[in-house]
Amino acid sequence: MAADPAAAAQGPEREPLSPPRPLSIVSALPFWFYLTATVSLLALLLPHLLSPHASPPLPPLLCRHLSDGCLLKLHPGPDLFALTSRPAANSAHHHPVLVLPGLAAGSFSFRCLLSSLSSRGLVAAAIDLPGQGLSPPPPAPPTRTNPLREIMDRGIFHAFEHLVETGEVPFQEGAPKASHSFYAAAEAAVAAAHTMDALGLGPVHLVIHDSALAAGAALVSANPAAVLSVTLIDTTATLPAFPSAVLGVPVLGRLVLWVPALFKGLMRLCCVRGMDAQEADAHRAAMRGEGKRDAVFEAGKAMNQSFDLREWRSSTEKVDACEEISKLISEFVALLPTTATEYGSQNIDQSSDKSTEAHSDHPAS
Q: Minimum mean pLDDT among 94-108, 157-171, 202-216, 351-365: which range?
């Protein structure tokens, strides 16, 4: 029997497609199980990871430094942390040395320097400026009243009732008050002067580091009799070694403080190239405290507005040279008078010698 040519051209017959089977509840259970488990795990972990009030334990190196120093309750003014290293009893023959650390450095960076100075017979102290190091952040200034928020809280007719009762128009903004910030150089200098009094430090040999130049200059200007000499270590008034602007970036700022390797790389890139992991972790823990990240950022913002990391790369050659710096400071202090009376007598002797030379050069006729 001959085959149908039309059927041969169409090819073999195809079986009819079966309708898709509806998804059963059993096949969807694994998806919903894993989704629920993932959401539950994130709900448990995210509050602990992102909460600003979370306070992880301090590294042993920072705990030791905290126990060696003291937190001074200053009133009025912010509380400051100070570290003092004293030599053996009755062996100090010179005035004390006071160190003002720069931005994000703190007294922790100078603990070896203070110990070296005390071993050379000098009383040495370091003060963490407001919000820096282990000093707690100063209280935030009071916020200005928002008229729109007050209208929403009290109602739209509150202004009319207040006008009828008192004859005054509410929500009037007064003259803008002068900005009051403890991060300003003058306020930080006042806090440092109060700390000197609390520690019982008389006239001091002042050592200024990095961005503490402005606060140190304000301290010397306001208390000239309390400072005998000034030593500068990598000082700057506009560009600190630590790029504090990084902490102001919404996501990157938190990421830098939560990832140890990232923070260590930033410190070795911009501050000290030879910083080890333990010391970097101690610095990171000091900045992870409540409000400390904002404090470092605000202090840096008051000095510098740039966010170009190439400007900070000039700090990569810095190394730890506390012994060399300690030797230079101790030799410098040893050349200075030991007491204010001796300092005044030397000035009198120098002035009398100058007057004698002047009279000898111009004899009476």
A: 351-365
